[in-house]
Amino acid sequence: MRYYLLLISLVVAACQKEAADNPGSIPASAMMNVAYGSDAAQKMDIYLPAGRNTAGTKVMVLIHGGAWASGDKTDFASFVDSLQRRLPGYAIFNINYRLSTGATNPFPTQENDTKAAIEFIYSKRDEYKISDKFVLLGASAGGHLALLQGYKYNNPVKVKAVVSFFGPTDITDLYNNPASPFIPAATIAQIVGATPAGNPALYQQSSPINFVTAQSPPTILLHGGMDPLVSPSQAMALEAQLQLAGVQHQYVFYPAEAHGWVGDNLVHSFNQVQAFLAATVQ
Questions:
Q1: Peptide bond just before 108 cis, omega within 30 deg
Q2: Dmax over Cα atoms in the chain, in whole Å?
Q3: Does domain 28-280 have CATH number 3.40.250.10?
Q4: Could you tell me the pTM of the whole model?
């Protein structure tokens, strides 16, 4: 029996050494609805690539849209396969966050949840075998949260790049100059939990444009010229600030598109994002 146990321990040790010497032997893994907090909404889906390691496996965090009051991580689920094919070395984390109902979870709940999710992922680097090379990609409200996180926080990790699909960049301007009647000022005030006059600091602190510095991460902005919810002027204003600060960036404008697009322009968008990340995230 003692000999048998010794043999088993030697086999296990040999297998562990083989895995360490051959990172490609680590299989891909997917985990759904992993909790990063105590609230039922604080969940994420995790897609880890084969052969991952703590030195080189980059991280992409997906942040869904929905005007901070609706939407779900499943909105991005159909794009995960495409992202895995285009960015095979990336671990993908698709997050949910608590939604603002007006009565509950006003700003900065969504900002805080995004930060908590990133802190959770960062704390699991050794367990998940991922690096500290983080990229944030969001659409609409998720684009806003990606930009805000990337510009406002350097701890526990400094984000390497931000991808924003038609994300708001200046919440005060979003309130004062609605793109259309679809999201009037009163709706913004309800979601935020105050008006700019009632809580100017909250609007200032919730606007990514106010946190641009020369050290801000490389950023790619994608926006439609016919967007009825978030005016292209939001992206243009941020682009001007990035240019002024000397931050590496790209603005991809689709004159005839609205708040989201499909077909050839969507393929073009992913091509642009893929090329931008290849150039900026090493």
A1: yes
A2: 78
A3: no
A4: 0.91
